Amino acid sequence: MVAPQVPQPPKAVFPSEAEKPPWSIGGRNYVLILLTLVAAINFLDRQILSVLLEPIKAEFGLPDWALGVLTGIGFAAFYATLGIPIAALADRFNRRNIIVVCTGLFSVMTALCGLAQNFWHLFLARIGVGVGEAGTMPASQSIISNLFPTENRAAAMGLLATGGNIGLMLGMLIGGFVNDWWGWRWAFAVAAMPGVLLALSIWLTVKEPVRPKEPAAAAEARQHIVRGILKSLSTMSKVPSIRWFTIGGSLYGLTGYGLYTFMAPYYMRYHEYSTSEAGVLISIMTGVLGATGTFAGGVVCAKLATRFGLHWNGWVPAMAILLSAPFMITMLLTDNTWLAVCLFVVPGFLSSVYAGPTWAIIQELVTPAQRAMAASVYMLLFNLIALGLGPVYTGAVSSAIEPAVGDQSLRYAMASVVVISLIGAFAYVMAARRVTGDVSKVRAAQERTDA
Questions:
Q1: What confidence score (pLDDT) does residue 313 get?
Q2: Are 87 and 139 in contact (CB under 8 A)?
Q3: Buried b (16+ CB within 10 A) or exposed e, 328-350
Q4: Contact criterion met (CB below 8 Å) for 72 and 388
Q5: Which of 111, 125, 162, 199 could form a disulfide with 104 if both were Cys (CB 3.0 to 4.6 A apart)?
Q6: Domains (range + CATH), the chain
Q7: Mind giving me the DSSP string for 195-263?
């Protein structure tokens, strides 16, 4: 006699990382939030120096051009150039691990900034911060491109871009208040703490997403990192709209860094703000309003691009630049404090609208196997031009014209950098005219390769 079979419960099926519920631990929205926090801490540790420039200037006796070197090229040269080899590693190895190591490194180096005894100590510590921060953004953009489909990618990149505004806000608040309470050295120590905790959280709760299957030829080419770098550079240089998006983003970024690096000194010198008061104002304008504008710009651009075409990835940043420029110039030249605050609202809201659409469309203009490298090449050029030259330009112009205009030199130098953003707007218009055709060519080439 055969014993009756007892029905067995069905075996549990565990979804892949990409298929997990979006808000569960390891789900795509959860990962996006953590990566946005990494971007925020990245900017916090990078930008906290700007609200501390006046007390550092007073203690070390530095001219404005030296402040520009500390906030600009001293940091940006290593931050930008190291992004390329780290992105090559991100296209080949575990991106999660790269983000964890880099986040821990730049947090430790931020703490060392507080121990500086002179200009050169601070300069070397800032180089260390740049080395650590070089690897987080390319790997983050590559992971997000794997987790989010094309129609949602601009919005996801827009949220990632808000990390810059959030970090700037936190940097201004922490730097301003901690400096008033305990001095600028403790401000660096406090800013370094969140990065260590965030690195541990990512290490313990996030897994490396599965990459899209790539052709055998592409996989073989990536085995040699240098060859992969050269191939990616060659491929990107041949796409006209990538060139125009890079020019537009870099020139507008030059204006942004040239302005916001010295925004706290501007309000402290010309409107008699303390570091905490300047920090609160700038955190609201470029943190709260800027983050809202950045995310809204990504969402709006994604909807417009889906419905009307990818050329909106160029038109949205161009319109944001042209609208904000007259408000910013008028704000810088007025002596009325309340007017200077009110005029700051529109440029603050529009300050980073360009970031999400630009990052997203560059990911569409290359093959999946080249996304981390494409992000890094863009960030290399962006950071050398924008972060590297923006603060240096403003500081150098201020120092150069100071003998002629006295203590008004900084505001005139900041106003002059706004004009450069108009060239960036022109570049975005040119990109908008070419991008649809370029994306079609890339997709057709990919389909031929897959076949």
A1: 86
A2: yes
A3: bbebbebeeeeebeebbebbbbb
A4: yes
A5: 199
A6: 23-207+217-450 (1.20.1250.20)
A7: HHHHHHHHHHH--PPPPPP--HHHHHHTTSHHHHHHHHHHHHHT-HHHHHHHHHHHHHHHHHHHHHTTH
Residues found in the chain: 451
With both helix axes pointing from N to C terminus, report the angle between 371-382 and 73-81 in degrees, rounded to the nearest 10.
Answer: 160
Closest CA to 90 of 362, 358, 377, 355: 377
In 10 A of CB 210, how many CB atoms? 12
Indicate the average pLDDT of the chain. 83
- pLDDT tens for each residue of 290-323: 878 877 887 888 888 888 888 888 899 999 999 9
Dihedral sign for Cα atoms in the order 271, 261, 50, 341: positive
Q: What percent of the chain has pLDDT over 90?
A: 35
Residue with tokens 């030259």: 389
Residue with tokens 């404090």: 337
